[in-house]
Amino acid sequence: MGEQSLSQPHPQPLSPSPPASAASTPALSASTTLAAASASASRPKKKQRSSDSNASKKPRLALSVRGRPLSADGEVAAAIRYLRAADPSLAAVIDAHEPPAFHCPHRPFHSLVRSILYQQLAFKAAASVYSRFVALLGGEPGVLPDAVLALSADQLRHIGVSPRKASYLHDLARKYATGILSDASIVAMDDRSLASMLTMVSGIGTWSVHMFMIFSLARPDVLPSADLGVRKGVQMLYGLDDVPRPSQMEKLCEQWRPYRSVAAWYMWRLMEAKNTTMPPLITPALPAPGQAFTLQQQQQHEQQQPAPIQIIDPGQMLPGLG
């Protein structure tokens, strides 16, 4: 959505008087004028296209340009101060919860691989598949594009990866191997460019991109407008009769810019508080930087909390992205 200019249009200068030669030019005859007007009226008018006619047919990526990452020192505190002042309704939710932390120990490629492996699986089953996948590559340092590309569909099927997910992994690894994507370019791209590039990968849709940007890249101003938990949180926060549609979310959450990622995190927490049976929607336990992500850690987390619910994006279902 482009920014609307608040400046007033500049007044147009008055047209100069016609030169004397123009004034002496004979006027068109009345019959000629009437004929021209009649011909113009008889032409069928072209139907003007509405710029919003197809707006609801395609899910929108409600993203802004890249800002300072939330993992930077003091950035979460700055976001909380801003949101508390910008939205009094949200301030009460902020006061009721500990502040979030946005730190991911994995490289972008690794995080995207992991997100694909977790698709459409319960948390415990996904953790088991992920652990076997990492073991197949000789540990987490081995989760590299060339190594993933070298795995056959049969090898992946043997550890519980479906043929479709195997094709997703290979497509991602192939785009890295050919230079279309790289960890460096992913980190450097602005949000809109990155969203366009990532959704070119098979198996990665709008919802997946939102979760990756928030929890893996710590981007500060990402609005997951299709996420059911966030939408229900907005409904509860503002006392709306109905769950807002994805197309309504950007307007409803405009006051949260430029920290919509943090506000979305509080919407998940708000829904947890409403329903104590609802687990944290997104963030599984993460290892400390430099440590391996073991199945034992995943199982311990599973014992402490129920499996994350699966939120459905129009094209993707991606639980447990850390």
Q: What do you see in this structure?
A:
With 322 residues, the chain is mainly alpha-helical. The chain is built from 16 helices and no strands. Helix 5 (108-118) runs antiparallel to helix 9 (163-177), helix 6 (123-136) packs antiparallel against helix 16 and helix 13 (228-238) packs across helix 15. The model is unreliable at 1-64 and 277-322 (pLDDT under 50).
Quick summary:
The chain has 322 residues and is mostly helical. The protein is built from 16 helices and no strands.
> Would you identify the regions where 5 or more consecutive residues have pLDDT less than 50?
1-64, 277-322
**Beta content:** under 5%
Largest sheet: none
Helix content: 40-55%
What are the key terms here?
single chain, 322 residues, mainly alpha, 48% helix, elongated, disordered C terminus
